[in-house]
Amino acid sequence: QVQLHESGPGLVKPSETLSLTCTVSGASIDSHHWNWLRQSPGKGLEWLAYISYTGHTNYNPSLKSRLTISLGTSQDQFSLKLTSVTAADTAVYFCARADIWNSYNYFDLWGQGTLVTVSS
Amino acid sequence: DIQMTQSPSSLPASVGDRVTITCRASQSISNYLNWYQQKPGKAPELLIYAASTLQSGVPSRFSGSGSGTDFTLTISSLQPEDFATYFCQQSYRASFTFGPGTKVDVK
Prior knowledge:
heterodimer; A: mainly beta; seven-stranded mixed β-sheet; 57% strand; B: mainly beta; 11 strands
């Protein structure tokens, strides 16, 4: 059974960098697209970025200048960095797997989510 | 970005009701439309992809239809475990975008 689990600090100071890691258990990251999304009361569900098992990346244009998604050194992790955070970046952050079938792309597996609060 | 809207935002309903939720895209997205269910404190779960294909394990009372800009999610007979918030999401073009959600709650 494949599971995803987010980890990282729950509190980040304004202007600092938010760093999160997603650990995949029950499978390795050698297929699919691996995504980060977030959810806040103000902005709803927001897709942030994905990385393929080959290392190809794609970013939300509105956040691209502040985002970096990367594969981990082990075959079962990928990470997100968001720089220069503000209170507007306070949200529950999810990692998710995207399956692709005949060019259709959908998030079929999600982590439980981790709340990140930006505050001094 | 492709903007997604949903109606209604809130839907009071009773067990056994037939429930229909509408999603509209700001431009044609063919059938690149997914539906998710989310319960409080949990991650969204995939219900339907490609507008009408039921994800494995999802009960057959859920169905989806539509193409272009207008889509619907239907629950044929609402069950107690179906009280939740439902989101549509377009996958026609990355940046993928979601609708604001429809909360199905107890009438």
